[in-house]
Amino acid sequence: MTDAIAYTARERNALWLVAVTGVCALNGVFVYALAFRRDAITAALANPVSFAFIAEALLMTALLAYLLRKWNVSRLSWAWFVALALVGGLAFAVPVAALWKVSHTR
């Protein structure tokens, strides 16, 4: 396995588009609900199906943090990956982690 992962310009643009969509659109809905729709957050946490999805997202965040570092996909530590995922969601954290290595090797 080589040390650098090569992405085409199109792939890098697509990854950044996913990251921006994740942090602005998808996470924006969550931030809006936190600020203006507390009842929706409370209802989601009380719903067992919603709670299962939340638990799975947290479990997958931890697993991805471990695997991305183990597979040498990113230079980010597991803690930084988890922080990015908590701040912007997995749709933000995964592309940023994948591109982090590329940004620093060129």
Structure description:
- The protein has one domain.
- Helices cover 82% and strands 0% of the residues.
- The chain contains 5 helices and no strands.
- Helix 1 (9-36) packs across helix 2 and helix 3 (48-70) packs parallel to helix 5.
- The model has no long low-confidence stretch (mean pLDDT 89).
Task: Describe the protein's topology.
Elements: H1 9-36, H2 38-46, H3 48-70, H4 78-88, H5 90-105
Give a quick summary of the entry.
With 106 residues, the protein is mainly α.
Tell me the helix content. Answer: over 70%
Biggest sheet overview:
none
Shape: globular
Class inferred from helices and paired strands: mainly alpha
What is the tally of beta strands? 0
Rg result: 16 Å
- Can you tell me the number of structural domains? 1
Query: How much of the residues is beta strand, in percent?
Result: under 5%
Summed up, the helix count is 5
Q: What separation lies between the terminal Cα atoms?
A: 18 Å
Stretches where pLDDT is under 50 for at least 5 consecutive residues are none
- On the 0 to 100 scale, the average pLDDT is 89
